[in-house]
């Protein structure tokens, strides 16, 4: 016997004695709940008296304990109304709708014609049936389906492809013309202009008539003239294309390296050149005329071997250096100037002359193209003041009493250059900004390894590193003072995450002890860090030996003879007499110092009696261990 249907979407709540059940997350209208249905909550069943709205049910006062919001329920749909006059009324309403003339039916793609469909599709005259995939429409007329045509929009498909299946109103291009598929049956392999399948929509026109020949610049002259400055009048052809003010070169046909050029006037058959530039010498009467370009102000020629620079060497070097710096650091004709006031730091871009950028003296910024699939650069000229301000109390992740480096960045924010800043490192690691990646920014804050600008950039934008400001020790994080170093990025300047220097040590000398007091081994490596803002990354590998079964040999790395944070003691468990085992470790440290930092492997045991060795001395060729220590740009 089939169960009554039910509805249980959402949850309910009701209090003891309440005449109303509140339903959340459900729609009770439309027959989901009706008077006479049962509602079951926590095993208690009451009768639905009425449906007040889409979220409330009227009942006799709830005789049970309070029901908390979020409690599940179930409406058992067995109201007499569901099987009486109401359902019959719904059926009659549906039948009346189905009998309306013009109601549209849909034909499945499995049938080519509605008269073939099984079970048969019936309708009254005037009703239609549409096959959406093909756009075919049939109308019921005189009790039979009559094909009315294809009703489908034009669908451009590009150039004709012999293997593509085309349907009605698909449009293609072929041999300069466009065609639309007109056959009722989809198909492939029928190339335009096959009239059975295609109708021309736009036809390629005939080639136009050749235009009249225009005036030519290819004049000649047999006037005998010597190469030299001054006015030179040549008798030439009439009807040439030269206009007064054009720059014209007259060159000898026998040797084109002999020429003279200048601004010309032309009238009738006389072309007169005010010669201002020449090459070669001699008198010639075999002249060819050509349009010449205006020489640049520098008037450089290869034969001068850059002698034009004499007396301007310093400026030339500065200009070349500025451009090279722009290619590397993201800007040219630009410097960084930092100042602090009341705990806030301002970093501004100035020109080489020490002024704000202007239309007469711009600073140029270079970014990768905003479109990632383009390999081009975008150059933006900045002609007004640019700066970024790090407000007081904004730490950027700096820590009291430690060194910090703040990188200054430029962002192409939809064509406007916006300066930013970022502290790329903390004791957890280094963020290495990549200039081929686009970034968003936030307003100033206290997080390290995150870009910020005075106003946030919500849409990812191209970025360039410009340089950095550095403090050997910032007394109070967020209270900015003038930096000890302001450095533009350039050749030889490491970027965030790059290795500044490396120390490597390899030993085969064995250290053997019988104590639980950590004792230094011969495996030691170190250097003087170049900045308190930098991190030190290290690793070691070796082997350890114990002569006492089930006792541990411990190894750890100490900095300058003492344990340092974030590197707990590591241990190796020996399982037999004179057993050995490999050991290794790695660490990331911020010593906050530029004095000598030595990292050394220390060894001890767990019972103050067992004999332990590092590296182990069992077998041949096993007495080896190594350590690598890198200073990382922060």
Protein described:
The longest helix has 17 residues, at 313-329. Helix content is 5%, strand content 42%. The protein contains two helices and 48 strands. Strands 18-25-21-22-23-20 form a six-stranded antiparallel β-sheet, with no helix packed on it. Strands 39, 40, 42, 45, 47 and 48 form a six-stranded antiparallel β-sheet that branches. Strands 6-7-3-2-8 form a five-stranded antiparallel β-sheet, with no helix packed on it. The two termini are 76 Å apart. Strand 6 (50-53) and strand 7 (56-58) form a beta hairpin. The chain is mainly β and 634 residues long.
Summarize this structure as a short list of keywords or feature phrases:
48 strands, single chain, 6-stranded antiparallel sheet, flat, mainly beta, 634 residues
């Amino acid at each position: 016997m089939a169960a009554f249907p039910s509805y249980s979407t959402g949850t309910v709540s009701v209090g003891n004695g309440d005449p109303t059940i509140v339903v959340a997350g459900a729609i009770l209208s439309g027959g989901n709940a009706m008077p006479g249905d049962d509602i079951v909550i926590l095993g208690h069943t009451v009768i639905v008296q009425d449906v007040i709205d889409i979220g409330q049910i009227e009942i006799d006062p709830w005789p049970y304990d309070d029901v908390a919001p979020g409690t599940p329920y179930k409406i058992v749909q067995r109201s007499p109304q569901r099987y009486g006059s109401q359902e019959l009324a719904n059926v009659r309403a549906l039948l009346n709708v189905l009998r309306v003339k013009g109601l549209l039916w849909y034909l499945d793609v499995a049938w080519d014609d509605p008269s073939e469909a099984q079970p048969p599709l019936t309708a009254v005259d005037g009703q239609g049936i549409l096959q959406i995939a093909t756009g075919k429409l049939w109308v019921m007329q005189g009790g039979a389906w009559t094909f009315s045509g294809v009703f489908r929009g034009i669908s451009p498909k590009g150039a004709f492809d012999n293997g593509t299946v085309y349907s009605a109103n698909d449009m293609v291009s072929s041999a300069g013309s466009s065609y639309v598929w007109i056959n009722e049956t989809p198909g492939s392999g029928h190339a335009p202009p096959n009239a059975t399948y295609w109708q021309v929509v736009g036809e390629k026109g005939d080639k136009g008539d050749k235009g009249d020949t225009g005036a030519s610049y290819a004049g000649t002259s047999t006037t005998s003239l010597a190469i030299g400055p001054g006015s030179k009048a040549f008798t030439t052809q009439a009807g040439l294309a030269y206009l007064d003010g054009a720059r014209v070169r007259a060159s000898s046909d026998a040797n084109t390296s002999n020429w003279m050029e200048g601004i010309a006037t032309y009238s009738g058959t006389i072309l007169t050149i005010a010669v201002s530039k020449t090459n070669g010498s001699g008198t010639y009467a075999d002249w060819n005329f050509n349009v010449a370009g205006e020489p640049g102000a520098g008037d450089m020629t290869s034969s001068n071997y850059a002698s034009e620079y004499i007396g301007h060497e310093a400026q030339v070097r500065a200009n070349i250096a500025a451009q090279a710096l722009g290619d590397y650091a993201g800007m040219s004709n630009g410097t960084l100037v930092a100042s602090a006031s009341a705990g806030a730091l301002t970093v501004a871009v100035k020109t080489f002359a020490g002024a704000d950028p202007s239309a007469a003296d711009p600073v140029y910024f270079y970014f990768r193209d905003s479109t990632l699939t383009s390999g081009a650069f975008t150059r933006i000229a900045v002609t007004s003041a640019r700066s970024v301000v790090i407000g007081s109390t904004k730490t950027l992740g700096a820590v009291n009493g430690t060194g910090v480096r703040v990188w200054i960045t430029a962002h192409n924010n939809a064509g406007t250059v916006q300066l930013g800043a970022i502290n790329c490192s903390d004791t957890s690691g280094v963020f290495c900004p990549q200039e081929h990646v686009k970034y968003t920014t936030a307003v100033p804050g206290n997080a390290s390894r995150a870009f910020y600008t005075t106003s946030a950039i919500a849409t990812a934008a191209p970025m360039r590193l410009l340089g950095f400001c550095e403090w050997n020790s910032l007394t109070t994080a967020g209270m900015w003072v003038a930096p000890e170093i302001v450095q533009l990025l350039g050749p030889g300047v490491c970027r965030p995450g790059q290795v500044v220097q490396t120390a490597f040590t390899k030993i085969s000398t064995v250290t053997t002890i019988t104590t639980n007091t950590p004792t230094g081994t011969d495996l030691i490596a170190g250097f003087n860090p170049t900045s308190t803002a930098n991190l030190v990354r290290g690793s070691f590998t070796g082997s350890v030996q114990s002569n006492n079964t089930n006792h541990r040999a411990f190894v750890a790395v100490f900095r300058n003879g003492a344990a340092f944070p974030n590197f707990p003691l590591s241990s190796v468990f020996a399982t037999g007499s004179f057993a050995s085992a490999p050991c290794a470790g790695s660490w990331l440290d911020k010593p906050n110092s530029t004095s000598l930092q030595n990292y050394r492997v220390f060894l001890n045991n767990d019972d103050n009696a067992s004999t332990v060795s590092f590296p182990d001395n069992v077998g041949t060729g096993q007495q080896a261990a190594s350590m690598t220590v890198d200073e990382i740009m922060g």
